[in-house]
Amino acid sequence: MAASPSHRFEVHPDRDRVFIAAKGELDVASAPGLRAELQDLRASGWTRIVADLSGVTFMDTTAVHVLLEAADSAASEGWELRMVDGSPAVRRILGLTGVADRIERL
User: Fold this and answer.
1) What count of other Cβ atoms lies within 10 Å of the Cβ of residue 42?
2) Strands 104-105 and 48-59
3) Domains of the chain by residue range
């Protein structure tokens, strides 16, 4: 689990899938941590990953890019990526950038 004053990630396995819950801000400083967590989960053999954004208070385009990269990876490598929506502001960013159309929501 990575941590800083403005963000953290919590990983919670749930049967045959794993949740990565982002808390706080997802921005240029924290998005590389999200990327690393997703890569670690894939390297550990997880094929069903859920990005839980319900605890995200702010998201910038760096985080959007990480999610789109993960969606592309899932599509090309045959693993499943889903997400849990965040705040109204986060949902707006996901909608405006097309992330909401590319990653199925729970």
Assistant:
1) 17
2) unpaired
3) 7-105
Residues 6+ apart with CB under 8 A from 43: none
Q: Using 70 as the pLDDT threshold, list the residues of the chain that sit under it.
A: 1-6
Model pLDDT, residue 1: 45
Structure-token pair, residue 100: 């909401």
Read off the pTM: 0.91
Cβ(16)–Cβ(34) below 8 Å: no
Here the tokens at position 95 are 């909608």
User: What integer pLDDT is reported at residue 3 of this predicted model?
Assistant: 44
For residue 4 the two structure tokens come to 């800083």
Q: How many CA atoms lie within 13 A of 62 on its CB side?
A: 12
C-alpha count within 13 angstroms, C-beta hemisphere, residue 95: 8
In this structure, CATH architecture of domain 7-105: 2-Layer Sandwich (3.30)
In 33-79 the beta strands, taken as DSSP E runs, fall at: 48-59
> 39: which 2 tokens?
């890569």
Which tokens go with 80? 């499943």
